[in-house]
Design goal:
This protein is an all-alpha fold. About 80% of the residues lie in helices and about 0% in strands. It has helices at about 1-30, 35-50, 55-65, 70-75, 85-100, 105-110, 120-135, 140-145, 155-170, 175-185, 190-195, 195-220, 225-275. The longest helix is centred in the last third of the chain and has 51 residues, at about 225-275. The protein is elongated and about 95 Å long.
Length: about 280
């Protein structure tokens, strides 16, 4: 009986040593950024020990580095709350869902996180504030921002989020106003939208067509081919530019918001990497 127990103990210790060595090799592959090879190795290991937290975490991280976030989430979903890797995994899962365009799911994950200390509590606040900005829920953002300033290592990202909130809350240009301005003066709508070069070009072209039409009218009257041709071209250009200026405002606003949203995601990601490096 004692001999049998001894053999089982040796086999168990041997298996743990092999798993540890395998995970060490897996970490080596990750450090060298051989993510495809790391995924193959991790998948091989999980066939033998499907509940090994470290292997599952590294498998998810390899997919994460490749931006295959759906596969990351699938791997990390198998890490239990008792694991020492669970907290880091939850932050990564929340960010991944948010990055994939699911801010509500990301917020739910962050909201369920139980911080281990003041640092993870401050990080949780920052991540939730970032999600609120992406959802344009500014009252909720400012409620979260009341908790800023407690951890110095997060200050830069907290300041950035405050700046983004100010930019997103700035009075937006209105498409209908651009159309009215463009109707009143060629180029004015594009200038209002922020496309100054296009505004100057539109003004010059409209002025040229208008002068040609007027010259044709002055010399040969309203029935002249020259007047009809240039007047028609001016009218078509002007009507199209009125519509175009309203679209320009929408495009400019979307471009601006996308740029800010991308920066918010960056400032949500950096602290996670900093805290759990």
């Amino acid at each position: 009986m004692k001999l049998l127990f001894f053999l089982l103990l040796v086999i168990s210790l041997s298996g743990r040593a092999q798993t540890s060595d395998a995970n060490a090799f897996l970490r080596y592959l990750m450090a060298k950024r051989f993510f495809d090879e790391a995924i193959l190795e991790a998948n091989r290991l999980t066939k033998h020990q499907p509940e090994n937290d470290t292997t599952l975490f590294l498998l998810g991280l390899a997919h994460y580095e490749k931006k295959d976030l759906k596969w990351s989430l699938a791997a990390w979903d198998n890490i239990p709350p008792a694991s020492p890797l669970f907290l880091q995994t939850q932050f990564l899962k929340g960010f991944s869902q948010t990055f994939l365009g699911h801010p509500n799911e990301g917020w739910e994950i962050f909201q369920r996180i139980v911080p281990h200390d003041s640092l993870s509590a401050a990080l949780r606040t920052l991540e939730m504030a970032g999600v609120e900005l992406l959802r344009h829920d500014f009252p909720a953002f400012h409620q979260q921002a009341d908790g800023f300033g407690r951890i110095s290592v997060l200050k830069k990202q907290e300041d950035n989020l405050m700046a983004y909130a100010g930019l997103l809350q700035k009075k937006r240009r209105k498409p209908w106003k651009a159309g009215v301005l463009q109707l009143a003066l060629p180029g004015a709508g594009y200038y209002y939208a922020g496309y100054k070069g296009h505004a100057i070009y539109n003004l010059l072209l409209s002025t040229l067509l208008g002068l040609q039409a007027w010259e044709g009218y002055r010399k040969r009257g309203p029935e002249s081919v020259r007047f009809i041709g240039y007047a028609s071209a001016f009218a078509v250009l002007h009507i199209a530019s009125v519509w175009g200026s309203t679209l320009a405002v929408k495009m400019r606003r979307e471009e601006r918001e996308k740029t800010i949203h991308d920066q918010i995601l960056i400032d949500m990601h950096i602290p996670i990497r900093t805290v759990f490096r």
